[in-house]
C-alpha cells in the first residue's frame, strides 16, 4: 500500500513538472495570486530579477541562447504573482521605444543577452540579439542596437533562413 501511494505521489510530481516545462504560460497563469515561493517551486530559480519602476518585481526565465523563449513572472509589492507571459513575441517587441529605452529597459523585458554582444565601430552601435519564433513558427532573431550612451537606436526582426543554425550573428 505504501509503495503504491509513493508511486502515485511521484507520478503527480512528475505530471506537475511536465506541465510546467511543456506549457509554462498556462502553468504560470494558473499560479496568479500565488506567492513567489510557489512560482519558484514550480519553475525553479529565475535567470534574473528586476525591481520595476512601479514597485513590482519581475523574474525572468530565459531559455536563450539555444531556446526561443523568455518568460516573465511579475509580482506585486506584496510578492503575489500578477502575470506570467512569454516576452519574445512581436507584440512585446514592438513596444520598444527607440530613442527612449535603454539597455536596462530591454533587460527588464527580455533578460540579458545570452548570444555574444557585437559592437560595430563605424556605426558606433552595440548589438544584442535574441532568438524567437516569428509568426509562431519561423525561427528569427530580434536585434537591438544601442548608441554609446546605452540608448536604443534601432530594432529589427530577421527571419533565419537556416532555421536558427546561425544564431548569434546580426545580419
Automatic annotation (TrEMBL):
UniProt signal peptide: 1-20
Keywords: Signal
Keyword Signal tagged: yes
Protein name per its UniProtKB record: Lipoprotein transmembrane
Taxonomic classification: Bacteria, Pseudomonadati, Pseudomonadota, Betaproteobacteria, Burkholderiales
